[in-house]
Amino acid sequence: MGSFHGEIAEAGYPKIYSFKIGSKDRPTSFVQDHSRRGGGLGASNRLFRRGYMIKDQMNKIYGNMDLDDIPWNIETPPAILQDLIKSNKLSPCKIIELGCGTGNYVRYFSKMGFDATGVDISEKAIEIAKKLAQKSGVQCKFIVADVLGNMSSMKCKYDFVYDWELLHHVFPEDRNKYIENIYRLVKTQGRYLSVSFSEASTQFGGVGKYRKTPIGTVLYFTNEAEIESLFGRFFYFEELKSVDIKGKHGVHKAVYALVRPKNG
Ligand SMILES: C[S@@+](CC[C@H](N)C(=O)[O-])C[C@H]1O[C@@H](n2cnc3c(N)ncnc32)[C@H](O)[C@@H]1O
Questions:
Q1: What's the rounded Cα separation, in Å, for the pair 97 and 114?
Q2: Which positions ≥6 away from 12 have C-beta within 8 Å?
Q3: What percent of the chain has pLDDT over 70?
Q4: Ligand 1 nearest-atom number relative to CA 58
Q5: What is the distance between the alpha carbons of residues 79 and 76, in angstroms, rounded to a whole number?
Q6: CB 253 within 8 A of CB 17
Q7: Which residues lie below 8 Å from residue 154, measured CB to CB, with a gap of 6+?
Q8: Greatest CA span in the chain, whole angstroms?
Q9: By CB atoms within 10 Å of each CB, which of 5, 38, 217, 234 scores lowest?
Q10: Angstrom distance (rounded) from CA 74 to CA 226
Q11: Count of C-beta atoms within a 10 Å radius of residue 119
């Protein structure tokens, strides 16, 4: 089991927002959940509590920080997403981004002719996403939802489901629920793309599965083998590779997985 790293001052990051492990913002029991899996709270209670905490944390980030200071908030879509269209791997269809933040890439796909929807746990993020879409005259949908919750009320199925830097917010004990939800959202002939931080990244302390970022989020870093075993039961891999993704404060190593449901 990985360990949490303390505050890390990383060049370029504004340190305007932080949680102390063991404080009321991030109780010690949150940390202990990783080593006492199954002890104390039931799985759904743990999920509810963690969901509540990430929602609160993200609402504070989107509500208090200037959009330019939010490390991941980059208006121009990453080359990897643009290349899907340029290389004809993806053409206009029904698409959904899980953990869409302020909806930059949802707006991009809409402009490119896709029927695009974005989902985020943070009401603040979705409020901003809706305003930005309205301001730019783009037609797209935004929904507030926890991708680890009961998404059965979302009856739609999508040709393409993707997450851009969401999966590293989903801890191992919650990933089965996440896979279940994705499986329900993807059409039988559809695809799912995940791009999340790799253990090979040198950021946020440079080592460890769990790393704390300068703005207080705790992320779980992965590797290709782990992603293969996570998705392998229900999905075929079209592509699984390590990629470099450009962040505001440098290049991150990430794991890229493009998969199809096994029953497809
Ligand atoms: C690193 S940000 C990436 C946002 C967006 N994909 C982008 O690249 O601009 C991760 C996003 O996932 C959202 N998120 C985290 N956990 C979530 C959950 N359980 N359900 C839905 N959204 C979640 C956060 O609120 C945040 O907006």
A1: 12
A2: 248, 249, 250
A3: 81
A4: 25
A5: 9
A6: no
A7: 143, 145, 184, 185
A8: 50
A9: 38
A10: 28
A11: 26
* Whether the CB of 99 sits within 6 Å of ligand 1: yes
- Does residue 124 have its Cβ closer than 6 Å to ligand 1? no
Does this model's pTM top 0.70? My answer is yes
Could you tell me if the CB of 84 is within 6 A of ligand 1? Answer: no
Fill in the amino acid letter for 43. Answer: A
What is the rounded CA–CA span in Å between residue 165 and residue 169? 8
Give the residue extent of every domain in the chain.
28-261
Q: How confident is the model at residue 124 (pLDDT cuts 50, 70, 90)?
A: very high
What pLDDT is stored for residue 150 in this prediction? 87
Cα(98) to ligand 1 centroid in Å equals 7
What fold does the segment set 28-261 form as a domain? Rossmann fold (3.40.50)
